Amino acid sequence: MSTKEIFPYAGSSFVNTFSPQLVMKNTYSEASDKVTAELSAGDRAGTVMNIPFQWESLPVDDSLIDGQEDDKSTGIHRDNVVKKKLTCVLHDGGWQLLHNEGGNMLRHWIYNRRLLFPLLLVAGLSQAQASDIRNTIPYWSVWVDKAGISHQAKCQLDTLKLEQFSAKGDPEWVSQEDLLTSRYVFNIMPVGWVGPWHKNPSPQWIIPLSGRWFVQTMDGKRVEMGPGEISFGYDKNAGTFGNKVGHMSGAVGKEPAKVMVVQVTSALENPKDERCPAGGVGQQVSERRSTP
């Protein structure tokens, strides 16, 4: 018999944070991929959301917690009986709620395969969004098709995992397929500056810090980006068609475009989406061939 404590917490998408810490007492066993819990009445339903958590071991304590009654018939130590239902799925370090009939308060022990989970949800729970949106990083990708023509696709880095990164405490979403960096440099594109057709000198991330800039690929697609809109350039296999090769780029607007460039040794050898050589998948299907 061991006693465990769950420290639930919420990301910035929640109105409030989880509190206080609740204690459970049960023999540890492997968790099922599904659990159900009772939830108090609320006015929102069907929202998919993420509830991450972490474990810490505590000393064994055979006494009941806070004088609450133990339901020996079900093995559930009850704190507050409520009437609505909540369905969860465990995935990649977090609980994904598949059905939410309420959104105000949950304070109930969850029982599944001899494993008890205390969980506290507070007001604003139903405002969280699906994990495939909140736990990914979008970027524009310059890629080249088999004909040697460059394109741009909007990709999503989707392999982030919930873990502690630089300090103990609440985990954060951390990328897993990081490319080996070789150099970083800061560039300032003067107002009106335009770089002629060229290839990226190496696979590289371009992160705008201020101002705006554009990238135009051989298929005619032009994308303008500002602070927070990152791009990955990988067009070394681009062919030459007339005066076009790779891409052209330049500053946009009435102020210089200040960018940080992070060069990497190589792109992924076998990306799951050819349009996204830095990882992840493309949001939209783009033309595989076009006339430059």
From TrEMBL:
Protein name: Cupin domain-containing protein
SUPFAM superfamilies to which the protein is assigned, alphabetical: RmlC-like cupins
Superkingdom of the organism of origin: Bacteria
Gene3D superfamilies: Jelly Rolls
Record InterPro entries: RmlC-like_jellyroll, RmlC_Cupin_sf
Record CDD domains: cupin_BLL0285-like
Annotated region (Disordered), positions in chain: 270-292
